[in-house]
């Protein structure tokens, strides 16, 4: 009746199905304002259901103002409820979804091998953490983060990087992206730039742009930020990835680190240190962070996304004392805090040193895959390439002297099933890095790496790469 079809096997109650069918007709204009609905007895008979079920559906419509009911009169549709059809929305809704590309070679950057994550260990720790959580920890625990997690992060930074960090200076965040959002609000000053490396991570750059910050570029080379370009700049902050510059991979040397610290002091600005990929290092110990040189001038940002799994959404920041009250206020009035349960599990993962062991295994695995990639490049391209920044991280920047990789080349790769990015895509000033491609390898098995490089070699030999 009235085109209403009830599904008696559905989990949605019959009264709710009637309510939904009638509201759809009212909002679309099929039922006009002032039009009478059938009596509850009539509709119940037509649908072959209980009259009480129809009564309950009508009561829902009346309580929400879709229909009006007066004693002795039929129930009528309220006026002014028709919604005009949005042509653009309809077109978008009717367009079939594009199927994801089946990549034959997927060299995306920043992707850890999630198949290696120790699920069973995490599950067991999760059960222990939940049993050990007091009722107080299930409430609001404050913007700084779970004390147990801050204690364990401070201990891990001490044993892995030699950092002397006080727990009260640590703030838990929803990853590095969230930390940069808060840091941008902290350091922004009208009339001053936030200086960034060029090239830099365009996703992180977009955070500052979305905040309305004025951006200034400082060139990066094989050793990271070129600090000689800082002279005379009026900045409120410098965003830098000194341990593994993204995307070129350079490690900022001591002389440039000292120059950067001096600039921050003399210009009364801050350094936002994104410790990108520093844990995945293949030569020697991890590089000492800038934070160790001047804790009063450096906002240090770390994350567990790459070393555990991105969906965890837990990172941390070490914040100079004078900025901490403002940080607490900003965090309190945005999302208050991270969920306590995941924090408790991660704290236990760190406390039991299972994190250290997992990181050691992954560093060894990624190192082996890095060697496979380098060998595959040599086999395919001989001496017609050179790597940049291959001492750390999950990707490799590769220069092909004499080649030019533009958007048309990357699009042609995509159509061939090769997923690649170029350094030029991350450059503010275009033209300086047109001969460099980025190869992510952490998530790939050795044969996937070799097969992907062979496929790229065949494609490039066709001459498509030259513009």
TrEMBL record:
Cofactor: pyridoxal 5'-phosphate
Pfam family, one: GntR
PANTHER family according to UniProt: HTH-TYPE TRANSCRIPTIONAL REGULATORY PROTEIN GABR
Domain HTH gntR-type: 12-80
Native species: Cohnella thailandensis
Classification lineage: Bacteria, Bacillati, Bacillota, Bacilli, Bacillales
Assigned protein family: In the C-terminal section; belongs to the class-I pyridoxal-phosphate-dependent aminotransferase family.
Name listed for the protein in its UniProt record: PLP-dependent aminotransferase family protein
Keyword Protease assigned: no
Molecular function terms from GO: DNA binding; DNA-binding transcription factor activity; pyridoxal phosphate binding; transaminase activity
Keyword Transcription attributed: yes
Keywords: Aminotransferase, DNA-binding, Pyridoxal phosphate, Transcription, Transcription regulation, Transferase
């Amino acid at each position: 009746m009235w085109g209403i079809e009830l599904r008696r096997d559905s989990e949605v109650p019959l009264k709710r199905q009637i309510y939904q069918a009638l509201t759809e007709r009212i909002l679309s204009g099929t039922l006009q304002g002032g039009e009478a609905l059938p009596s509850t007895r009539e509709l119940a008979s037509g649908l072959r259901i209980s009259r009480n079920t129809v009564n309950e559906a009508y009561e829902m419509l009346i309580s929400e103002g879709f229909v009006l009911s007066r004693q002795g009169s039929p129930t009528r549709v309220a006026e002014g409820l028709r919604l005009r059809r949005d042509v653009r929305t309809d077109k978008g809704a009717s367009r079939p979804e594009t199927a994801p590309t089946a990549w034959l070679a997927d060299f995306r950057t920043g992707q850890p091998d999630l198949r290696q994550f120790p699920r069973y260990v995490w599950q067991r720790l999760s059960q222990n953490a939940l049993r050990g959580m007091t009722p107080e920890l299930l409430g609001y625990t404050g913007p700084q983060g779970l004390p147990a997690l801050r204690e364990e992060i401070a201990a891990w930074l001490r044993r892995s990087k030699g950092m002397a960090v006080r727990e009260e200076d640590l703030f838990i965040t929803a990853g590095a992206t969230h930390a940069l959002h808060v840091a941008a609000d902290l350091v922004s000053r009208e009339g001053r730039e936030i200086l960034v490396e060029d090239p830099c991570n365009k996703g992180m750059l977009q955070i500052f742009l979305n905040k309305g910050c004025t951006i200034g570029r400082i060139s990066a080379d094989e050793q990271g930020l070129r600090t000689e370009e800082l002279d005379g700049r009026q900045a409120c902050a410098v965003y830098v990835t000194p341990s593994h510059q993204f995307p070129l991979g350079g490690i900022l040397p001591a002389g440039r680190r000292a120059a950067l610290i001096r600039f921050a002091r003399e210009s009364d600005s801050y350094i936002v240190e994104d410790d990108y990929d520093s844990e995945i290092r293949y030569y020697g110990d991890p590089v000492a962070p800038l934070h160790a040189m001047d804790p009063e001038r450096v906002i240090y940002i770390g994350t567990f996304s790459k070393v555990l799994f991105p969906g965890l959404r837990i990172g941390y920041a070490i914040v100079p004392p004078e900025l901490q009250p403002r940080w607490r206020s900003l965090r309190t009035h945005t999302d208050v805090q991270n969920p306590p349960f995941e924090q408790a599990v991660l704290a236990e993962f760190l406390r039991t040193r299972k994190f250290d062991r997992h990181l050691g295994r992954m560093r060894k695995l990624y190192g082996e895959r890095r060697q496979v990639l380098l060998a595959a490049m040599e086999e395919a391209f001989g001496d017609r390439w050179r790597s940049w920044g291959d001492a750390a991280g999950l990707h490799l920047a590769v220069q092909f002297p004499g080649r030019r990789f533009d958007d048309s080349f990357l699009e042609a790769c995509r159509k061939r099933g090769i997923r690649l990015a170029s350094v030029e895509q991350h450059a503010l000033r275009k033209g300086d890095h047109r001969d460099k491609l980025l190869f992510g390898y952490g998530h790939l098995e050795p044969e996937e790496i070799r097969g992907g490089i062979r496929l790229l070699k065949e494609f490039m030999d066709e001459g498509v790469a030259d513009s």
